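Researcher: Let's try something more involved. This one mixes different molecule types, so please make sure each is placed in the same coordinate frame as the others.
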Amino acid sequence: MRIVVGQGSCGIAAGAAKVYSAIEKIVPETCELTITGCIGMCFLEPVVDVYDGNNLVKRLVKVQPSDAEKIIAFISGDENAVNDIEITDEDKDFLLKQTRIALRHCGIINPEKIEEYVADDGYKALEKVLKTMTPEEVIEEIKLSGLAGRGGAGFPTWFKWNAARQAQGDYKYLICNADEGDPGAFMDRAVIESDPHNLIEGMLIGAYAIGAKEAVVYVRAEYPLAIERLTNAIKEAEEKGYLGENILGSSFSCKMRIKAGAGAFVCGEETALIESLQGERGMPRLKPPFPAQSGYWYKPSNINNVETFANVSWIILNGGEAFSAMGTENSKGTKVFALTGKIKKGGLVEIPMGKTLRDVIFDIGGGIRNDARFKAVQMGGPSGGCIPEALLDTVIDYKALGATGAIMGSGGMVVMDETTCMVSMAQFFLDFTTKESCGKCVHCRIGTKRMLEILSRIVKGEGKDGDIELLEELCYSIKDGALCGLGQTAPNPVLTTIKYFRNEYEAHINEKKCPAKACSDLLSYRIDAEKCRGCTLCSKKCPVDAISGELKTAHSIDVSKCIKCGACYNTCKFNAVIME
Amino acid sequence: MIKVTINGKEITAEKGRTILQIAENNGIEIPTLCYIEEIKPYGACGLCTVEVEGMPKLLRACSAVASDGMVINTETPRVKQSRKIALELLMSDHTGDCKGPCSLNCPAGTDCQGYVKLIAEGKYKEAVALIKERVPLPASIGRICPHPCESACRRKMVEEPISIAFLKSFAADEDLKSDNKFMPEIAESTGKSVGIIGGGPAGLTAAYFLAVKGHKVTVYDAMEKMGGMLRYGIPQYRLPKEVLDMEIDSIAKLGVEMKNNIRIGTDITLDEIRSAHDATLVAIGAWKSSSMRIAGEDLEGVYGGIDFLRSVALKNPVKLGDRVAVIGGGNTAMDACRSAVRLGAKEVYVIYRRTRAEMPAEKVEIDEAEEEGVIYKFLCNPVEIIGENGRVKAVKLQAMELGEPDAGGRRSPVPVEGKFEILELDNVIMAIGQRINISGFEALELTQRGNISADAKTFRTSLEGVFAVGDATNRGASIAIEAIGEAQKASDVIDSYLSGETVGYKKPYVSERVITAQDLADKQKVSRAKMPQRSPEERRNDFNEVNLGFDEETARNEAKRCLECGCHDYHDCKLIRYANQYDVCPERFAGDKHNCKKEQKLVYIERDQNKCVLCNLCVRVCEEDVGKSLIGLVGRGFTTVIKPEFADASVTEFCKTCQKCVTSCPTGALKTL
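Model: All components are placed in one shared frame. Result:
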């Protein structure tokens, strides 16, 4: 028997490390206790799996340290000991309905042991490539697969590899972009924490294809566990001869290192990332020249995202055709999404392209928390846009999602219900991009700031006639004029919310009302005297003593004192506090 | 070599050149703030964007290398919109004064700060040259102008404004005294001729500028000498006519033909003038005194204010008794009362229906008149001039009090019911305003007020080829510098009209700051130079000039008090040039602005972050061209600023001679100290 505790950052945050130590204290010697990465079921963390050999016997969820004894009882033969913490059949569907390629080892193998990766066909693809394929053949196989950049732009991977391959230069670099910065996105972190060797293998195949002798993973410093596990994996791979000189006895040599980025969102833009790698201020370069011609240290360089590399070894082992058999005409393979927000089952979802948003949000994600009404989903973080209920049947495909005004993006999917104000949502993302703008180009540096100012005044109820049009004018100009992807996509959340929720903007501006009742400046609270029982609970909760009234008589709110914190509203048991 | 098409024009160019380089070589201007030839393209300002056929995105011309067959458009609506927004965004976070408030408040837009500085440096001829870019009569105007420039001068928040007007006449006097007087360069003859009706400040100004532009100018004037109100409305003690004569003479020297004693309608018709010239400018002024519409105005001994002043100027015998009252509180009233004193009147009253504080006349005039013995009677209004045997005997005054403020904020006088006063008098001079005498110009469309209707931007009248400016137009009489300002602008319009395409005047867009006394708290107080004057006892007996003029030392020291509010880089600033070219309206994006203190860490270079457009040229030049990297970017997004990294002596000594950052700056953010 083997007990495996899921220890991704998410699991640890939910208490997985404490669960591990509780089990460790009482686990019998006959039973192996080990860890794995993230299975992707954030809503069920901490997750503990019990294996018999390679067979998963039980999956236990929301495990607490106090459950340790039950688990030990179970492995000792008490079959019913863990019934209360066993995953339900419905929740099992969360994984069963997925198709896992990039995440295929996540939550299964121990990310800190190369042996487990190797045992699951690890480094076989690298071996195949080095022993049987020319770089051109590798590129051809990737072309056949239809793999496109998973970082968001969806540019064909083979094309970039080929450009870097063709570029003149004695020394080339392969770079992995692990600067995952979208709020609500954690796909790349999960891959690195849970399956670092898969990333290394994919990168090595890429390095072989383009002729790079050096590979760098640019990962944000806010991912300490990912850095730790990747550092360990690189060391393991070097020791086993998968990295370094004459890999697997071939003439191919490649070294790999990690560069921890200081957490600037713009460094996810490839030229800004290169600047940062060179020790410069993270600011985008002018393109052309593209990195394939002049990249890191002005040498030919290729940059791909973590998830892109995570697909490569599977493609090599299973063939490009098997990959392109999945998906739609112009979007092949699978895509990983980080499902968050007002969703019942938040976590990592990998599905073939061509599924609909409804499939992901309702079929896999289980719909909206508290059975509230779905309002919109934000795709692609601050660079993406929101998609309303009417478009839930949009298929997951670069083109189809692009047509909505949103983007595929790197995989962030933030689900919103009817309590989300779309203007505040746009304001939130603009606040993010404004702070993350590098300050280089005028349109982004000042334009996003001005957009944020306009949005802020609308949310405060100080919006003016013409503000929507002014926002739109700014949006289109910034898309046209900004230097890099950050600026060019920054207006998307605003444009899509105006497109689908213009009435909410108008309500804020014209009627000074927030239809979602989320903007505190536009709310007022009062007490319905007929419903109020005079229980005094609200007046005790009120932090500014704005509520007065005798016991068992109707209370009232002094509007001039009220700070609209909502404490009374949340406290009242009789629905007597009215928010409007 | 490759072939590209820019704006429909096929161009052969060297391979490997950027679109910007090719355009520049072929005389096509693409705006940019962040590109200079010497260093690598950077792409920050976003102004050089162009559209290339077949490319969905706009390209940055500074970095996009042209390829064979490329079809490039540099002026499409999309490109212009992108540039306009970029400029509006830049200006929305650009805090500085393009021009000093003095210059902005001068109706003629005189570069006050510029010539004050030249005076401080002792460069009087250069100062006059600069003044005469706007005002061709500086010695005269400097003496009599109510100087809106000084009212706006920020130095008044420290102690008192710079004595800008007197500095102007000082410099002009120096020039008039010199053997090497300033003469403007005159453009080649255009073969066109302009007839100007009226030889006052407006007519003379237009004559000067049109002559400089190469046109043949003839000025027609009804009076026996040129000068208009400067000669016949302003008393000799304020503006000696010898000074005016010299300035008119310098205009005549430009080849301007001056015809006096010609009155339109009697000696010649407007149509005759129109047909004799390619364009006509009407600048006839407002020469009729306004009536008070009270009984007794036609009694003997009652004069109109400007009529009285004209008679004095013409040295016509004006009979004044011992007791004279001047009605009105403006500058004409001051001129009239002080002239009356000089003519020997024993008791001279100024009757004004509000109080001293509301008087429109200049304070210095009010004080000087008082020094000369003028008696003010405030809060009373004449309701009847009482006569005896057809002559003035007294005036009946209605007592007034101040009521509610009117639309302009001035408290309106209201009668105190039943309270009157009789003031015994020999003469009444009504200085309450002036109107236009339209005879001879009936063909022109008038405004409701009875003034000539002229377009505010093109100065066109209802007759083809006839323009009008000054006191005779639109809102009526104002100060001389207003008329001069209009005439200078009209001369540009007329010049464009003569070359075939009339271009109206457009007020240039400028960046302005709001400054409070607190911002100037660190300035050392230095008193304003006092104009030396003859004593009241002496001057009240004759018409000789009251002011004695600054000596050179006083003038130069006074000039040095200037705070130099306007940007040193205004004339070379690319940002403001483009902002005007693209007709920006940054107010719509008004929001947070950088608010940094000026900084002199590099000792010989002053840096004003509030004007910085973050083109990063200074940083890049220092790094790429100079190889020093003494400055760098700090912060992110909107809060990004440029800061020097070191300030030790060796570094700053280097900066002293290098200065490349300063010369590369496209705005006035950097300044050599």
